[in-house]
Amino acid sequence: MKLNSGAKVGSGEIQPTFAHRISTVLYSKPKLRLRLLLAAPVTWLGLVYIAALLALLITAFYTVDSFTGDLKPGFALDNFISLFTDSLYRAVTFRTIGIAFGVTVVDVLLALPIAFFMAKIASPKLRGVLVISILMPLWASYLVKAYAWRSVLSNVGVFAWLLRPLGLDTPGYSLLGAGITLGYLWLPYVILPIYSSLEKVPNNLLEASSDLGAKTWGTIRRIVFPLILPGIVAGSIFAFSLTLGDYITINIVGGANQMLGNLVYTNVGVANNLPMAAAIALVPVVIMFGYLTAVRKTGALDNL
Amino acid sequence: MRISRSAKVILASFTSLILTVIYLPLAIVFLNSFNSSVNMDWPPTSFTLIWWHKAFASSGLIDALATSLLVAVCSTMVALVLGTLLAMALSRYKFFGKNSVSLMIILPIALPGIVTGIALNNAFRTMLGFQLGLITVILAHATFCIVTVYNNALARLNRLGKNMEEASADLGAGIFTTFRLVTLPQLVSALVAGGLLAFGLSFDEIIVTTFTAGGGVQTLPIWILDNMFRPGKAPIVNVVAVFMVVVSVIPIYFAQKLTAKESKS
């Protein structure tokens, strides 16, 4: 700890400069200090970002004049009604939720054995290597990874090359292709929270369980599972939420299929219908808030 | 709990299989950047450096790289200032609305990118009357980069406690002097780690960027997305993809090392 450079401050012979006077005033007024600290960031996040989110919420109730393309303020439920009645919107909403659910379940099932191996079987040294190996690809660009799957899934790609001799074929650019890619993208996000919750399960608890006569499977089901449930839920939040909002992956590897994000995108851009876009964008937000409230009791939110 | 030897072997092979699958697509992109086939036929029959040459000769690409670096550096700096201020406020003071403030910090990254994207797009254009451009991209990126700086700084400040700062004040240092000579030197490695993460986050970001960049600004991810579907351009996209992985992973690697070293000492 290098503190010697601060020693001369205490000599008390310094002329009271402007900065000193401010410092003295601030020292005696902790509330003012707090306000100054918070002023810039809270102005930005609160007055711009949160206001923007609220404005988006309000815009969802506006309509667009079909002749002029201008926004018409008001409180109309038109957008929400078409969201629930229009067959395209309904199909895309259910498809998106279905993909998100499938991706989440598959990722959790894949992540559990890996996390278990990392936390309870691997030696501490191997564990460190594994954590880094899982972590590194997480930071490679999401776009690059989706693009990588575009070449893997292509007609002349690795999947076709590997599977055709077996009489199978690559899923190609389809919903399945998009599902595989999304599952790939979020898998590290699911492994890591499950791993860290498993790591916290004390080994002697597992030994005690087996000493008391529980079989391996019984210990996993009755001791390990309840303890790591918050980790599983935390991982599922990532996979689920990230899939709900995605529109790039489905563009790259999903062929002509659409997810909610695509509808938002086309409504903002091509259709110039911001209110409809806002209404659609609220779907993932509402689903996520519902999900978060539902899992709040498990303590998963402290694991994020 | 006893885990049989065969179960251990199965788990180990499963883990290595999944790790292979995790790295395989990235390895394929790397190999394809040398694949002489324009359609990237697999397996490659011959290799070439022509795509790398073409990539470095493309002025649009170099401009996009410069834009990406500029955006990442500027938004990281904004995030460093705002994130540090927030971390100091939330670690050293108790106040009404503290939970709301911390929720507000993680919201830009917790909500789907597309929600943040159109919310900011709408705010910039209609609420604030800005023209979409470089500045709006930087502001948008800074918004979701704050959280990485904040998290790192907050963890450090909580670990350091108030003792040093109080001792400094008792010895007569004003609040600015205490910050400069006591708090900041102990905070700096956490800020570097948080800043590197913010840089990586901004450098890779595509969704919020799409909605806040307007027509004139092209970052590297936007360049990739624009060129990915053009038949002749796909091999060059491989080169850029390899480059992007390297540029974003290196700072993150150092950030991780920095935090790992700190938590050990």
How would you summarize what this structure contains?
By secondary structure, chain A is mostly helical.
Question: Key features?
Answer:
heterodimer, A: 304 residues, mainly alpha, MetI-like fold, 2 domains, two-stranded antiparallel ribbon, 1% strand, disordered N terminus, B: 265 residues, 11 helices, 79% helix, 0% strand
Question: If you had to describe this structure to a student in words, what would you say it looks like?
Answer:
The complex is a heterodimer of chains A (304) and B (265). Chain A is mostly helical and 304 residues long. Chain A is built from 13 helices and two strands. Chain A folds into two domains: 42 residues; 214 residues, MetI-like (MetI-like fold). In chain A, helix 9 packs across helix 10. Chain A starts with 17 loop residues before the first helix and ends in a 9-residue tail after the last helix. The N terminus of chain A is likely disordered. With 265 residues, chain B is mostly helical. Chain B has a single domain, classed as Orthogonal Bundle (MetI-like fold). In chain B, helix 3 crosses helix 8 and helix 4 crosses helix 6. The longest helix of chain B has 34 residues. The two termini of chain B are 33 Å apart. The chains are: A mainly alpha (304), B mainly alpha (265).
